[in-house]
Design a protein that fits this description.
Elements lengths: L19 E2 L6 E2 L46 H4 L9 H15 L6 H22 L6 H37 L2
Antiparallel strand pairs: 1-2
């Protein structure tokens, strides 16, 4: 191509050019980007669909199959046919309750014994939603964090109450 075929990007002046003849149909086309003829998009290649974890080419993979490289389930979001899916409310509640359960261990463990099991239950519900492709995939990691925080909070509260009852039993046994 000659330099006259391109626009001058500095002052955006269009340089006149001759119409091009397409090699595949013999039709004359004024603007290569316009869809003037029915075969205007015939030479375009489909855009490759890539795995968001390992960047493996997933073009042709069916929805619900696993990525051959990393094992990620190919959902409709990977193929781009769904709009942005919302974050799971269960995942958010699980994370918040899990954090409250860890902090609640400092308040005699009572909030932790309530919030921790709720965080665990909500995390399981959020993971089920992710597997059904109802919510975004980022909800999976949020639910996992809520599950871990809930387990830690519940474990610390149970350990604190266990030690408390152990001291009471030892005090009764020694007759103090």
């Amino acid at each position: 191509m000659k330099d006259e075929d391109f626009r001058d990007w500095r002052n955006d002046d269009a340089v006149p050019r001759e119409p091009e003849e397409r090699a595949d149909s013999g039709a004359v086309e004024d603007d290569p980007g316009a869809a003037a003829s029915p075969r205007a998009g015939a030479g375009l290649q489909p855009q490759a669909i890539m795995c968001p974890n390992c960047y493996q080419n997933l073009t042709g993979a069916t929805i619900g199959s696993a990525c051959p490289e990393c094992g990620l389930v190919v959902g409709a979001g990977v193929a781009g046919s769904l709009a942005n899916r919302p974050t799971s409310g269960y995942a958010v509640a699980s994370l918040v309750l899990g954090i409250v359960s860890i902090v609640g261990c400092m308040l005699y463990g009572i909030p932790a014994l309530i919030c921790g099991p709720l965080a665990i239950i909500f995390a399981r519900q959020a993971k089920k939603q992710v597997l059904r492709n109802e919510v975004s995939a980022s909800s999976q990691s949020m639910a996992t964090a809520g599950l871990v925080c809930g387990l830690i909070g519940t474990g610390l509260a149970a350990l604190g109450w266990g030690i408390f009852f152990l001291f009471i039993i030892m005090a009764i046994a020694t007759g103090a």
